[in-house]
Design goal:
β14 (382-386) and β15 form a beta hairpin. This protein has 13 helices and 22 strands. α3 crosses α4 (122-128), α3 packs across α10 (313-320) and α4 (122-128) crosses α11 (323-338). By secondary structure, it is an alpha/beta fold. The chain has helices spanning 2-17, 39-52, 95-113, 122-128, 139-147, 157-163, 214-226, 252-266, 282-290, 313-320, 323-338, 372-378, 435-442; strands spanning 57-64, 70-76, 81-86, 129-134, 231-233, 235-236, 240-242, 269-270, 294-299, 344-346, 348-350, 361-364, 367-371, 382-386, 391-396, 400-405, 410-413, 416-419, 425-427, 430-434, 445-448, 455-458. The relative contact order is 0.11. Helices cover 29% and strands 20% of the residues. It is elongated. The chain has two domains: 20-337, Zn peptidases (Aminopeptidase), CATH 3.40.630.10; 344-462, Copper Amine Oxidase, Chain A, domain 1 (2-Layer Sandwich). The strands form four sheets. Strands 1, 2, 3, 4, 5, 6, 7, 8 and 9 form a nine-stranded mixed beta sheet that branches. A five-stranded antiparallel beta sheet has the order 10-12-13-20-19. The structure holds zinc ion. Zinc ion binds next to loops. InterPro entries: Cu_amine_oxidase-like_N, ENP1_M14_CPD, Mao_N_sf, Peptidase_M14. GO terms for molecular function: hydrolase activity. Its cofactor is Zn(2+). The active site is at 298 (proton donor/acceptor).
């Protein structure tokens, strides 16, 4: 008996020694959350993620730091609505970069496997909303904190040591290597910022003008570009959430509701409503400039003037893993309110060519719709319309059968039930279906050009070699005039051009 107990105890000890991370849901993990997450590691991982999920993830540099590091932005999703998540404004808070990167990988894997993620439908959410991440806002600072002086030219070592109060240990460093705190740089109550250190220092120096650093310039420019509905700026530590800053009274109920949900999900404590004069933070600026919700969560328990240990990650991840998808869903709701009828017409290509028959397509409420008939016919289907059930059944000897019903989210592809991202609709006597359904029925890969919205189908066995490009798609050189939405059926494809509706 005693022996059994001992064996059991031994097994328990063994089990508890197995790291909980990388989590088992991912068959292979790209992001190693147990590592000291450096700029070089992040750069490699972003490239690998974009190669692994080429239809879902894009990335680009939104600026370069003084020491030539790229400030990477990573887009995850296919929607027109956007939210923005960032990390590592402060050098020593790089565990927030690990958190951003883990979200990207986990959500992309769930989307691709078409499985729910913590109760959220990753595919439905990311088809409608793009989550933009800047996982490391301050890569020079993170590098200084992690690698110390050796990562910087000898000519600046004495200046760095001076800004570090004479110490060669940079573990407490928060600023960028110019000694400016990137989260005291934004133009919101900057002039009256309290507790400022008047000279370049490892913390709390706001600079000599707002938005003077390359890091802050990049983030401000990028925020205007993606126009997010909600912003989240991850920091550490304290397990608290800042959620208000001179928030307009009319917006308080909206933001308070989200803040309460954020707090319930993470177990982080909400900070009191703020209308003090100390601003300059990213979410201070976002709230007062865009009048939209923004949150600064501080992950982890404070453990002195340094980075959180990587051992703190699994618990903070557990508390935050739903946040990106949840806020993407909330962001879409907010975006829909601002865009009540956001139909815009887009073009279609099959294997790089216009379809054999003129094919209209449009985006409505974040869903890409395309006229089903020309495409299914091009892929060898014969379609039958049942007026009594308002159902289309199309069959092809090569691909099988697809059937769907007007105004119903439920379709059948080869006998399997499929939930569509939008209901098939009839416009001017023509039936439109979510473009993804065409892809599911025909086996053609679907890619959506982010700039033009163009739907690009690639046949299962393409004539031309179709190697997925990891480069961001380029906008067309010539922008066509906005389409007349009343254009008659059967007009030439060239009249159904992309509109200039803003993204
Ligand atoms: Zn911070």
């Amino acid at each position: 008996m005693k022996k059994t107990m001992l064996a059991l105890l031994g097994m328990l000890l063994l089990l508890s020694a197995i790291p909980l991370y990388p989590i088992s849901a991912a068959s292979r993990s790209i992001v190693d959350a147990t590592a000291t997450y450096t700029y070089d590691r992040m750069t490699r991982d972003i490239q690998t993620l974009a190669q692994t999920y080429p239809d879902l993830i894009e990335y680009r540099s939104i600026g370069k730091t003084k020491y030539g590091r790229d400030i990477w932005a990573v887009g995850l999703g296919k929607g027109t609505a956007t939210i923005f998540v960032n990390g590592s404004h402060h050098a020593r808070e790089w565990l927030t970069t690990t958190l951003n990167m883990t979200m990207i990988e986990q959500y992309a894997a769930a989307y691709t496997a078409n499985r729910p993620y913590e109760g959220y439908n990753a595919r439905a959410i990311l088809d409608k909303t793009t989550i933009w991440f800047v996982p490391m806002v301050n890569p020079d600072g993170v590098t200084l904190q992690q690698l110390g002086l050796s990562a910087f030219p000898a000519s600046v070592h004495s200046a760095l040591i001076r800004m570090n109060g004479g110490s060669t240990n940079f573990k407490r460093w928060k600023a960028n290597p110019q000694g400016i705190d990137p989260n005291r740089q934004y133009d919101s109550y900057w002039a009256t910022l309290e507790a400022n250190i008047a000279y370049p220092f490892w913390r709390n120096h706001k600079g000599t003008a707002p938005v003077q650093t390359p890091e802050n310039k990049a983030i401000v420019r990028f925020t205007y570009e993606i126009d997010p509905e909600i912003a989240v700026s991850y920091h550490s530590a304290g397990r608290i959430i800042y959620w208000s800053f001179h928030t307009l009274p009319a917006n308080l109920p909206r933001d308070k509701r989200l803040a309460n949900l954020f707090s319930q999900t993470t177990g982080y404590r909400l900070m009191p409503q703020r209308s003090d004069s100390s601003g300059g933070g990213y979410t201070d600026w976002f709230i007062t400039t865009f009048n939209r919700p923004a949150f600064t969560p501080e992950i982890g328990i404070k453990s002195g003037e340094t980075n959180l240990p990587v051992s703190a990650f699994p618990e903070e991840w557990r508390r935050n893993k739903k946040i990106g998808l949840w806020l993407a869903q909330e962001g879409y709701t907010l975006w829909s309110k601002r865009n009540p009828n956001p139909t815009r017409y887009i073009t279609v290509q099959v294997d790089g060519q216009p379809p054999a028959q003129a094919t209209k397509a449009f985006v409505q409420k974040g869903v890409n719709y395309v006229a089903y008939k020309p495409l299914l016919e091009q892929y060898g289907f014969t379609a039958f319309w049942d007026q009594s059930t308002r159902t289309v059944t199309a069959t092809s000897s090569a691909s099988g059968t697809v059937s769907f019903t007007l105004n119903s989210l439920y379709a059948q592809v080869n006998g399997a039930a499929v939930t569509l991202s939008g209901k098939p609709v009839m416009v001017d006597g023509m039936i439109y279906v979510p473009a993804r359904m065409i892809s599911q029925a025909t086996g053609a890969a679907l890619r959506v050009d982010r700039q033009t919205g163009q739907l690009q189908f690639t046949s299962p066995e393409p004539v031309a070699p179709a190697v997925p490009s990891i480069e961001s798609p380029q906008p067309p050189e010539v922008t066509a005039p906005p389409v007349n939405p009343n254009a008659t059926e059967g007009s030439a494809p060239s009249t159904v051009e992309n509109s200039t509706y803003g993204q």
